[in-house]
Design goal:
The complex is a heterodimer of chains A (788) and B (310). Chain A is mainly β. In chain A, 5% of the residues lie in helices and 58% in strands. Chain B folds into two domains: 85 residues, Sandwich (Immunoglobulin-like), CATH 2.60.40; 168 residues, Immunoglobulin-like (Sandwich), CATH 2.60.40. The chains are: A mainly beta (788), B mainly beta (310). At the A-B interface, strand 20, strand 21, strand 25, strand 27 and strand 42 of A face helix 1, helix 2, strand 1, strand 2 and strand 3 of B. Strand 48 of chain A pairs antiparallel with strand 1 of chain B.
C-alpha cells in the first residue's frame, strides 16, 4: 500500500510539473440570451485533443500548448456549438456565450466533448438535462423533478404519487438534497405528493447514487445537487402559470445589465382561497390548507475575478381549522399545523489565478414544524393550549478550492463546519381557569447541539489516454456535548476506456451520517423527526462498491450504461413496533430501535438519448434490499418495504415542431414487500368480555397470525402517462398550454391491502378476504403558462 | 355531564377526523377503487388456541379453540381436551368441559402463587402455559371524581378521577385502570367509558393513548414504592334517557407482566392491521403469546373496584 501511494504521488507530481509550464485558458460559459451560467458545458481543443467542462458556477480552466493554433469548440446540450481559433501565449480569462439551438435535430459533434460517457471518471451519476426532466407528463400537471428522477435506474419511488426517493436501498433521509449548496431537510409538500422544487427557478440538477465525490458527505445513499437560476443578466423576463394544483409567477432580470441580476419565483397552492369560506358557510368548521414556495436569488460580478451570490428559499405547508359553535358562541377552537423550510446562502466566487478557483459559502437552513395542535378553546372560564414542535437550525460555512494544474489533472480541496441545533420534539400543555394557569408543562424541551467539521481532498487524474482515476478522502469530526465521533471516508472511481465509445469502471466509497430521521411513513410527512447522533445513538455508516460499463453508439446519439452495486449500512434506526411520533413517551429515545443493519445489491441498466428531436431514456433495475433490527421480526432480516425486484422506467419526448411536443412515460415494477395474515385465532380483549360464541363478535377479538415481516409482495405496478405541450408565440411573449393524462389506461395499482371479513345475511362472519385499495385512476390535467 | 359529553363528542369526532380531512378531500377525487384480490398463501396448519384471564377468588375458566387458515373457515371449538392445572408446579385440578369450548374448575386461584396448565388435545399434542398472580392487591386511596375538570389537547371537556396509588416497594408492578358508568338504576346498563386519558408521565410513556384505549396500562417504573397521586380524565357516551349522574365504577387491576405484554401488543395489533393513503401498506404487529405449541394467552390479574358518585 505505501508503495502504491508513493507511485501515485509521483505520477501526480510529474503531471503537475508538466502542466505548470503551459499557459492556461480559463473563464466562463454562459447563455447568450440570459447570461445564465452553463454548468457542465464542454470546452475542447480539437488540435491538442484536450478539453474540460465547466463547474457548478460555469467556470473552467484548461492548459493548452504554447503558441499553438488552438481550435476551440465550446458546446452544450440544447445549444449551438461555438468554434473559435486563437493563439495562446499567456494565461487568459475569457467568456464564451452559447445560443440556444433552434434546430430540432442538431448535428451531433462527435468526439469533441470531454463529457463523453466513456471519458467521465465518475459512477452512479444521473445527469439528464433539466429540460428533459421538465418535459415529462406529471400528476395534476405539476412538473416535479423528484418524480422524474424516480424513473431512473437505482432510484425507486415509495408509494404512488409521492416524491420520496429510495436510492440503492437507502431511505429518503439518506439523500443529501442541496439547493444552491444548502442542505434541505424536508423536500415535500402535501404529504409527499408535490416536491418543494419549483422548476421555474431551477437551472440544473445532478444526482449521485452512491460513490459520490469527497466534496460531498454527511449522507449515506445519494446526493442531489440542485442549482437555482441566477437570473437574466440581459433583460427583464417573466412568466405566469396556472395549473390545477398550483399557480406560479416568476420574474428575473438585470439589476445592472451584464453585471448583476435577480430572480424571484413564487408558487402557491390555491385551493384554500375558496375552501375556507365554503366550509365556514356549510359547517361550524372552517378548514384551510395551502402550501407555497418562494425562491429568490441575487448575483453580482464584483470584479472580473469576483462574484457574489445570495440565494434564498422558503416554503411552508399550512393546515388551519377553526371550530365555532354557532349555538354556543363562547365555544371556539383554533388550530394550526405548519411545517416547512427556510434557507439561504451567501457565496463568493474568486478566481485567484487562472488555475485556482475558490468558493466561500455561508449557509443557513431551518426546518420547523408545529404539529398537531396549537389550539385555544374557551368554554366558560376554562381554556387549553397544547403544541408539539420540532425543528432544526443549521449554520454552515465552507471554503472550496479547485486547482487545475493541467488538462488531465484537477484537484479539489475544501474545509467546512456546520453547527446543528435540533429540537426533536417538544410537547407543551397549558390549562387555564379563571385567568389563572392551572397546569403549564413542557416535555422534552431540550435542544441538541452539535458541531460537524469536515475537510476533504479529491483529485481527478487522467493517468493515461485510457485510464482515469478519481480519488478522494473526506475526514469529519463530530462533537455533541461529551460525545465525539470521527471518520475518514475514502472514495475512489477508476475508469478504463477500452476504446472510443466504450469504458469499464469501478468504485468504492465509505460514508458516515451523523443525522437520523425517525420516520413513521418515510414520505417526508411532518410526523418525521430528525435527530442528531448522541452517545446512545451512534452515527449511521455505509460502504458501497460498484462495477460498471458504458457504451455509446450511433454517432454519440445513444448511451448505454450498466452498473452492479453492493452496499451495506449500519447504525440505522426505526420506531419500535407499534410506536410512533405522538404515541407514548414524549422522549423519542424511549421508542426507537437502534443499531439496525441494511443490505442492498442490484443491477442497473440505462439507455439514454439526450439530443435530437426525440429524446428520452429507458432504465431497468433488478435489486434486493433488506433490513435487520434486533427487536423487529424476531431479529431476523426482512425485505425492506420498498424492496422491489424489478423496476422499469421509460420516458420519451418528441418535438414535432416549434409548436407541438409530445411526451410519455411508462413505469413498471414488481410489488412492494408487505405483511399479510396467514391465519386467525380468537382472542380475549378484556377479562369478562368473552361472549358465548367468540367468533360471532367483531374483529377486535380476532387475532391475525403472521409468518414474518414483509413476506408478501404486492401485485405488479404499472402506469403510463402522456402529455402534450402547445407552444405559440404571441406579440408579447410565448404561451404554453400543457395537457397531460396520468395513468392513461387507468390501471388500478395497489396502494395498500387489508384483510376484510365477509358476513352472511344474518351478520355472521364466514370468510376473510384480502382487499386491495387503489388510488390515482386516470387523471387528466391542464395548465397554462405565459412567458414574457 | 351529559350535555358536556355531547359537546365533547361533537368536538372530539370533528377533531379526530379533521386533522387531515382537508387533504383527504383534495385527494378524494384521486380514489380509484377497492377490490378483492387473491394471494398465494400457504395453508397454515391449525393449532390449538388457549384464552384465559384468571384472578383470585374467581373460578378459573379456559376457552379452547383452533386457529383457522387465511380464508377463515368456521373455527372449531375443542371439546375433547384434557386440561390439568398446577399450582407452584404441583398438580391441583383437572378442568371440566362446560360446552362452547369452555373448561373450568371450582378451584379459585390465590394471590402470590404460580399457576401453570398442561393441555392435551388429541391430534395436536401438549400445550403449556404459566403465569403468576401478584402477591399484593393494591387498592387506590381516596378516589375522588371531579366533574368537567379537564380539557384535553383536542379540546374535549372531561371529568377527572383523582386517587393515590400506594405502590408496594421492591418489585416491578403492572397496573390497569378502567372506568365503568353504571346506569343500572335507570336502564340496567353499564358502559366502559370509551375515552380515558392522563397527562401523567407514567401513563403517557406507555404509548397507548394514541390508540384511544378503553383502559390504561402502566408500570411503577417511575414511582416504585411511593404513594403516587394520579389524575385520570375520561368522557362518556351520551346515554339517552339515562340519569344524569350514574354510579362510576373504578377498577384498578394489578396485572402480571404476561397480561401487560399481551394487552399492549393486542391494541397495537388491532390498530395497525390496515394501511392508509398517508402510510401506504400497513406494518402489522404480532400479538404476544405465552402458549407453547399454540396460540393465545393464559394471564393473571387481581382486581379492586370502587363505586363512586358525583
Amino acid at each position: 500500500m505505501p508503495k502504491l501511494l508513493t507511485v501515485f504521488l509521483l505520477v501526480c507530481m510529474i503531471k503537475v510539473s508538466q502542466a505548470v509550464e503551459k499557459p492556461t485558458l480559463s473563464g466562463f460559459v454562459s447563455d447568450s440570451e440570459t447570461g445564465e451560467m452553463l454548468i457542465g458545458a464542454t470546452i475542447f481543443d480539437s488540435q491538442s485533443g484536450k478539453g474540460t467542462i465547466t463547474n457548478g458556477y460555469g467556470y473552467f480552466s484548461l492548459n493548452l500548448p504554447v503558441k499553438a493554433n488552438i481550435q476551440l469548440i465550446i458546446s452544450y446540450i440544447g445549444y449551438q456549438s461555438h468554434q473559435e481559433t486563437l493563439m495562446l501565449q499567456e494565461n487568459v480569462i475569457m467568456k464564451f456565450t452559447l445560443s440556444p439551438s433552434l434546430e430540432l435535430d442538431p448535428v451531433i459533434v462527435t468526439d469533441t466533448r470531454t463529457d463523453l460517457p466513456e471519458a467521465r471518471i465518475e459512477m452512479g451519476t444521473i445527469d439528464v438535462p433539466l429540460k428533459q426532466l421538465q418535459a415529462m407528463p406529471s400528476l395534476g400537471g405539476e412538473k416535479d423533478i423528484l418524480k422524474a428522477l424516480q424513473l431512473m435506474p437505482g432510484v425507486k419511488f415509495g408509494d404512488e404519487g409521492k416524491s420520496g426517493l429510495y436510492v440503492r436501498g437507502g431511505s429518503p433521509d439518506e439523500n443529501l438534497v442541496l439547493l444552491d449548496d444548502v442542505p434541505l431537510y424536508s423536500v415535500n409538500h402535501l404529504g409527499g405528493y408535490v416536491s418543494i422544487f419549483n422548476t421555474d427557478a431551477i437551472n440544473s440538477i445532478k444526482m449521485y447514487k452512491g460513490s459520490f465525490p469527497a466534496n460531498y458527505g454527511g449522507r449515506l445513499a445519494s446526493v442531489l445537487d440542485i442549482r437555482m437560476k441566477d437570473g437574466n443578466m440581459k433583460e427583464t423576463k417573466g412568466s405566469v402559470a396556472l395549473g390545477l394544483l398550483t399557480s406560479k409567477v416568476t420574474f428575473e432580470g438585470p439589476v445592472k445589465k451584464d453585471t448583476s441580476s435577480y430572480l424571484i419565483s413564487v408558487r402557491r397552492f390555491m385551493y384554500d382561497i375558496f375552501m375556507k369560506p365554503l366550509t365556514r358557510a356549510l359547517t361550524d368548521v372552517a378548514f384551510g390548507y395551502t402550501f407555497y414556495d418562494i425562491n429568490a436569488k441575487y448575483n453580482t460580478k464584483l470584479t472580473s475575478k469576483d462574484r457574489l451570490y445570495l440565494s434564498f428559499y422558503t416554503g411552508d405547508d399550512n393546515l388551519t381549522y377553526r371550530i365555532r359553535n354557532k349555538k354556543d358562541a363562547d365555544f371556539t377552537m383554533r388550530s394550526r399545523n405548519t411545517w416547512g423550510n427556510l434557507s439561504g446562502a451567501l457565496r463568493w466566487n474568486h478566481i485567484y489565478t487562472t488555475r485556482l478557483f475558490g468558493n466561500l459559502t455561508y449557509s443557513y437552513t431551518q426546518y420547523r414544524y408545529l404539529l398537531g395542535y396549537e389550539n385555544t378553546q374557551t368554554l366558560g372560564d376554562k381554556s387549553h393550549e397544547s403544541s408539539f414542535r420540532s425543528g432544526i437550525n443549521d449554520h454552515g460555512i465552507k471554503y472550496d478550492w479547485e486547482y487545475y494544474p493541467g488538462s488531465k489533472f484537477k484537484v479539489k480541496v475544501g474545509i467546512g463546519s456546520t453547527f446543528h441545533v435540533f429540537s426533536p420534539g417538544q410537547k407543551h400543555q397549558e390549562f387555564r381557569e379563571n385567568q389563572q394557569t392551572v397546569f403549564d408543562t413542557t416535555f422534552n424541551g431540550l435542544n441538541y447541539q452539535a458541531w460537524e467539521h469536515s475537510v476533504y481532498l479529491l483529485s481527478v487524474l487522467q493517468l493515461s489516454p485510457h485510464l482515469g482515476l478519481n480519488t478522494g478522502v473526506r475526514c469529519s469530526y463530530y462533537t455533541a456535548d461529551a460525545t465525539q465521533y470521527q471518520s475518514a471516508e475514502p472514495r475512489a472511481v477508476l475508469n478504463y476506456q477500452v476504446q472510443t465509445g466504450l469504458a469499464f469502471r469501478c468504485s468504492y466509497s465509505y460514508v458516515k451520517q451523523y443525522l437520523h430521521l425517525l420516520s413513521s411513513s418515510g414520505l417526508g410527512m411532518p410526523t418525521d423527526i430528525w435527530m442528531l447522533s448522541t452517545a446512545q445513538l451512534p452515527p449511521q455508516e455505509a460502504w458501497q462498491t460498484s462495477l460498471g460499463v458504458v457504451k455509446r453508439f450511433r454517432e454519440n446519439r445513444y448511451e448505454l450504461s450498466s452498473e452492479i452495486y453492493y452496499t451495506q449500512s449500519a447504525g440505522l434506526i426505526d420506531y419500535q413496533e407499534g410506536a410512533s411520533l405522538l404515541s407514548g413517551s414524549p422522549y423519542w429515545q424511549d421508542k426507537i430501535e437502534t443499531a439496525g443493519e441494511g443490505n442492498s445489491y442490484g443491477l442497473e441498466m440505462m439507455l439514454l438519448k439526450k439530443e435530437g428531436a426525440t429524446t428520452g431514456w429507458a432504465g431497468a433495475t433488478v435489486s434486493h434490499t433488506t433490513r435487520e433490527f434486533e427487536n423487529i421480526n424476531s431479529g431476523k432480516p426482512y425485505p425492506y418495504t420498498y424492496d422491489r425486484l424489478v423496476d422499469i422506467g421509460i420516458s420519451i419526448h418528441h418535438q414535432f415542431n416549434q409548436r407541438i411536443s409530445l411526451s410519455g412515460t411508462w413505469v413498471f415494477n414488481t410489488g412492494n414487500a408487505f405483511t399479510l395474515p396467514v391465519g386467525y385465532h380468537a382472542a380475549i380483549s378484556n377479562p369478562g368480555s368473552w361472549s358465548d360464541h367468540p367468533f360471532q363478535s367483531d374483529n377486535e377479538t380476532l387475532v391475525e397470525i403472521y409468518e414474518g415481516k414483509n413476506t408478501f409482495r404486492a401485485k405488479p405496478y404499472h402506469r403510463m402517462d402522456i402529455g402534450v405541450d402547445f407552444t405559440k408565440n404571441k406579440p408579447r411573449g410565448t404561451r404554453i398550454i400543457s395537457i397531460s393524462i396520468y395513468n392513461v389506461y387507468n390501471h388500478l395499482n395497489p396502494f395498500y391491502y387489508y384483510s376484510s371479513t365477509l358476513y352472511t345475511l344474518d351478520g355472521k362472519p364466514y370468510q376473510k378476504v384480502i382487499k386491495q385499495v387503489s388510488y390515482f385512476p386516470i387523471i387528466p390535467s391542464i395548465s397554462y403558462q405565459f412567458n414574457f | 355531564m351529559i350535555h358536556l359529553n355531547l359537546k365533547r363528542n361533537e368536538v372530539n369526532n370533528r377533531m379526530k377526523n379533521s386533522c387531515f380531512q382537508v387533504l383527504i378531500c383534495i385527494l378524494f377525487s384521486l380514489y380509484g377503487c377497492e377490490k378483492e384480490v387473491s394471494f398465494k398463501i400457504s395453508t397454515l396448519p391449525s393449532k390449538p388456541v388457549i384464552n384465559s384471564f384468571f384472578t383470585p377468588d374467581s373460578a378459573l375458566t379456559i376457552h379452547l379453540s383452533k386457529s383457522t387458515d387465511s380464508e377463515y373457515r368456521e373455527p372449531e371449538i375443542i371439546n375433547n381436551a384434557r386440561i390439568d392445572l398446577f399450582t407452584n408446579s404441583v398438580f391441583t385440578e383437572r378442568l371440566s368441559y362446560l360446552g362452547d369450548g369452555k373448561y373450568n374448575t371450582p378451584y379459585k386461584p390465590v394471590s402470590g402463587r404460580d399457576y401453570s396448565i398442561l393441555v392435551t388435545v388429541p391430534g395436536y399434542g401438549e400445550l403449556t402455559a404459566a403465569d403468576r398472580i401478584v402477591s399484593q392487591k393494591v387498592a387506590p386511596i381516596n378516589p375522588t371524581l371531579i366533574e368537567d375538570n379537564f380539557i384535553d389537547e383536542e379540546g374535549s371537556v372531561l371529568d377527572e378521577l383523582q386517587f393515590v396509588l400506594p405502590d408496594p416497594p421492591g418489585e416491578q408492578n403492572y397496573y390497569e385502570i378502567r372506568i365503568i358508568m353504571d346506569y343500572s338504576d335507570s336502564t340496567n346498563l353499564e358502559y366502559i367509558v370509551p375515552f380515558i386519558t392522563s397527562t401523567d408521565p407514567s401513563i403517557t410513556q406507555e404509548g397507548d393513548l394514541y390508540y384511544y384505549p378503553e383502559s390504561l396500562l402502566f408500570t411503577d417504573k417511575l414511582f416504585d414504592g411511593q404513594q403516587k397521586n394520579f389524575s385520570i380524565y375520561y368522557g362518556g357516551y351520551l346515554c339517552t334517557g339515562c340519569i344524569e349522574h350514574p354510579s362510576i365504577l373504578v377498577e384498578l387491576r394489578n396485572v402480571s407482566y404476561t397480561y401487560y405484554q399481551y394487552k399492549k401488543s393486542l391494541i397495537r395489533h388491532i390498530e395497525n392491521q390496515s394501511g392508509d393513503i398517508w402510510n401506504g401498506m400497513a406494518n402489522p404487529i404480532p400479538v404476544f403469546s405465552n402458549i407453547t405449541n399454540g396460540y393465545g394467552i393464559f394471564a393473571a390479574y387481581s382486581s379492586h373496584i370502587d363505586t363512586l358518585h358525583y
